[in-house]
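Hey, can you fold this one?
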Amino acid sequence: MNETTLIEGAGTLTRTPGGPYVVRFVRAYDRPVEDLWEAITEPELLDTWYPTKLRTDGVVGNPVTETFESTDGTPPEPTPPSTLTAYDPPHVFEYRVHGPAEAEYPGMIGEQLIRMEASRGGHDDESVLTFTHEIQALEGALDVLAGWHYCLEFLALQMGAPGEPTEENAQRYKAYYQETYGSGARP
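Sure. Predicted structure:
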């Protein structure tokens, strides 16, 4: 990794021997953990930053639905089925995606686990999000790494923090992650 090009708030990509790639972001906000929990679970807030319309009833073992919205009026791309695997308000929201073995978009391939943990920060009015996404293939991991970075810029704005979700930055994130992890993740 070239330390001089480090992007503030950059995510990391690791891999355990024989295991999935793990995309990880940690973000702190000057808002109570309850506000962060609402931002990662309440539909009207989640829709401001999450790339799909994500819905769940909060019951572990039940389906999680994701729907992409089409901007041009065509039917949205179907998403793989998902199952809620952990739901512990106001701290843990986790679900497993049962993706196909092959797909046009590498971020949809195979079994995946997406976990959002909200915890208290250094004081009562600070919260910390630890966002992880386990994914099987390097190509998919690189794709979702840049995508989540972009989405988390929108979440920052939702939480009253600085964020810059622009197309220019999205391309910068993509190039950064490709340069940093394109040859694989560090264990």
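The first strand starts at residue 12 and ends at 15. Let me know if you want another pass with a different chain boundary.
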